[in-house]
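thought: fold this chain, then report.
action: predict
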Amino acid sequence: MNPYGKKNIAGCVWELCEPIADELGYRLWNVEYVREGADMYLRITIDSDDGIDIDDCEKMTRAVDPVIDEADPIEGAYFLEVSSPGVERVLTLDEHFDRMTGENVEVKLYRPIDGKKSVVGTLNGRDEKDILLDVQGETVRIERRDAAKVVTIYDWQSDMKKDKN
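observation:
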């Protein structure tokens, strides 16, 4: 399911890459076509229930590169990057919010709400216009249009304690 529409490059690339990702056992997490300085980057982010490592990224790169080249949806030069979303991942699509329900997240806001520029809580889900958080036992609704960025929070300290035991 292409979340971007066919009219833009990310949408075209999503449609080219989704069946390949599925065949390889991955899920597309995100596709971005962005300028950084003078260069253009096509970033394809993949995920799986087993996690993603460098070998997975290489396998996906080798599989999609010739398909993208043949379809030629991008004029001019660009760098192709394939990566995992990481442990602290940005949530943008409905599927992201659905998959990460129950995880701790930080919602960074465009403008302060009740004097705060960010809200941290457990993601309880979403609806068409709101992000639902549990913040210290209370349900907080934040309009998606007010959220500049939503990112999962990984508990690094707990993970480090596990490694020491």
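thought: worth noting. The first strand starts at residue 27 and ends at 36.
final: tokens above.
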